[in-house]
Design goal:
Blueprint lengths: L20 H4 L9 H31 L3 H28 L2 H24 L5 H24 L1 H4 L5 H30 L1 H21 L14 H13 L2 H31 L4 H28 L2 H21 L3 H28 L6 H29 L2 H15 L36 E8 L5 H18 L3 E6 L6 E8 L2 H9 L3 H11 L9 E6 L15
Helix pairs in contact: 2-3, 2-7, 2-8, 3-5, 3-9, 3-10, 3-14, 4-5, 4-8, 5-14, 7-8, 7-11, 7-13, 10-12, 10-13, 10-14, 10-15, 11-13, 12-13, 12-15, 14-15, 16-18
């Protein structure tokens, strides 16, 4: 498996997320859940194999072709599949059997890793074969990452979500501390083929846990969504979720420049410091140790700093480590500074991940997190190619210097897009008045729903402002269009109108209603005069085939 931010978590036996608030105050409380604990251990082992493979891939490329662009393209090839396939994978995770889908992804990674090991043994690996293998390995990670991330809230209590995400990050970075050093050591004695084979074997633990997974039955009252409509609904949800959009903007700003450190580190190790695979692995291990320490300290840091303050400080610290990577050529000094690279990286990654998790409703969580991963790895892919090209045309120092300056400037996005303004959203599903029993076929549509309000004209302005939040609710639920109109002949009479693609999509809107949506709707309906609730009408486009004998009705 490749170095992806997969929180190793999935269903396995029985999930009992019933920890009390006192228990949840401990950063280790999620490990009390047996399912979380078992998959956490399995993914740590798998990620150790991933990091060993990454060291082997980067070092083998240096041996085959040391051009800075080709070396940086290893990072780009590892990031590109997440950009291309994370969203389709998130859609699949929301509409198919998640267990079978995750098992397929693990088998995919095993076959690719074992195939690369065979090609290395038979001396058939070329630079382009190596890039293709990195791409295919990351494709397997792209398939598994959205569903792995989406199930974390199902494995632990809501109060344990932040500690669970921090533990997942800790697990990844424990493997980051062990894998590179172990990979470098094995490279020194056995060569890359052994590293690739061990990566293939490391996948088997996760596969075994997934094979034993007995997920709770998911009762579907409506037919499953079609793939392309699910993609559109997922993108519409992200567009209409301001908290999630803030997370995406901040992620793009950081990872575009942060990718320089990962893409150019192998070149600094080999060309500038004259290190072998063991020394390169030691630098990566230093980053991993820093990330482990960061993950352990994060709970106390979150109590002292807001999310924005923490991410800005971490971004500035990361920029300083980029400057050190550009100009310091003493191995032990640089290894000590790289410790802070890992510290800053985990602070950013964990904070953004928590924000993404909390801003997505359960029914669309895999798709929303897939969009986050798409932005993450798209920024990493583009950044790796940019910094590699710049280093090839100019030099490594200039490329890292420009990235550090860009990182400092990117940290100012916190002034406009604030994570600290993230409200405590409750996105649990809630009961919603059922749609009228019409007997309409599911595919009839489009459907226009109108909601007529009667309010005191004095409250018109605050009412319209409150209705803007309802616009986001309707759009997140699947509305294609939304508008509000005022009756010029009846002051205080407003009509909210939104359109969905079919009657089935409107039925889905009722199932997607969350506690937060309910609160917004209550605030809007508090303006309604009298005891009667707003009047709701459902209008469906006529079925032309039913009136084929009288075409005059349609002009």
């Amino acid at each position: 498996m490749t170095q992806t931010p997969k929180p190793g978590a999935n269903h396995q036996l029985v999930v009992e997320p019933t920890a009390s608030l006192a228990e949840a105050s401990s950063p280790w409380s999620p490990l009390r859940q047996s399912i979380f604990r078992m998959l956490w251990i399995a993914t740590v082992a798998s990620n150790i194999g991933s990091w060993m493979s990454d060291v082997g891939t980067s070092w083998m490329m240096l041996t085959l072709n040391s051009d800075p662009l080709m070396v940086a393209m290893v990072q780009a090839a590892s990031s590109l599949p997440m950009f291309l396939f994370a969203l389709p994978s998130g859609v699949m995770a929301d509409i198919v059997d998640r267990r079978k889908y995750l098992l397929f992804s693990q088998v995919w990674v095993f076959v690719v890793a074992a195939g690369l090991a065979f090609l290395a043994v038979t001396d058939h690996v070329t630079p382009h074969v190596l890039l293709a293998a990195a791409f295919l390995l990351s494709t397997g990670a792209a398939m598994s990452s959205p569903p792995f991330q989406a199930v974390v809230p199902d494995l632990v209590a809501k109060s344990e979500l932040a500690p669970a995400i921090a533990l997942n990050s800790l697990g990844i970075n424990i493997s980051r501390a062990i894998g590179p050093a172990l990979g470098g050591l094995i490279l020194s004695f056995s060569g890359p083929a052994t590293v690739f084979l061990l990566n293939a074997l490391s996948v088997l633990g996760v596969t075994w846990v997934l094979f034993r997974w007995q997920s709770a039955p998911n009762i579907q009252r409506l037919p499953p969504e079609h793939f392309f409509s699910a993609v559109r609904v997922g993108l519409r949800y992200v567009y209409s979720a301001p908290v999630l959009r803030t997370v995406l903007i901040r992620a793009m700003a950081f990872f575009l420049f942060g990718s320089a450190g990962w893409a150019l580190l192998p070149l600094v190790a080999r060309r500038e410091l004259g290190l072998g695979p063991g020394g390169y692995g030691a630098l990566l291990a230093s980053i991993g140790i820093g990330a482990v320490c960061g993950a352990i300290l994060l709970p106390s840091m979150r109590r002292k700093f807001t999310a924005d303050s923490l991410t800005v400080l971490a971004s500035l610290l990361f920029a300083l480590t980029l400057l050190a990577l550009a100009f310091i050529r003493h191995f032990w000094l640089l290894a000590g500074i790289e410790f802070f690279t890992g510290f800053a990286w985990i602070a950013i990654l964990s904070t953004l991940n928590v924000g993404a998790q909390r801003s997505a409703a359960r029914w669309v969580k895999a798709r929303a997190l897939a969009v986050y991963l798409t932005v993450f790895f798209g920024s990493m892919t583009a950044g790796s190619a940019i910094w590699g090209q710049l280093a090839s045309k100019v030099n490594i120092q200039t490329s890292l210097l420009v990235a550090a300056i860009g990182m400092i400037l990117a940290s100012t996005t916190a002034l406009r897009w604030k994570l600290s303004h993230d409200p405590q959203l409750n996105l649990d599903a809630t009961e919603h008045p059922p749609a009228p029993q019409t007997g309409l076929p599911h595919d009839r549509g489009p459907v226009m729903i109108s909601v007529e309000y009667h309010i005191d004209p004095v409250n018109a302005r605050p009412f319209v402002v409150a209705l803007q939040e309802m616009r986001r609710v309707r759009r997140r639920g699947g509305a294609l269009t939304w508008a509000v109109y005022e009756d010029v002949q009846s002051p205080g009479k407003f009509v909210e109108v939104f359109v969905v693609g079919s009657w089935l999509e409107h039925l889905r809107q009722h199932e997607r209603h969350t506690v937060n949506d309910q609160l917004i709707q209550s605030r809007v309906r508090a303006f309604q005069l009298g005891e009667q609730p707003p009047q709701v009408r459902h209008l469906v486009a006529p079925d032309e085939s039913s009136y084929a004998g009288d075409s005059s009705q349609f002009g």
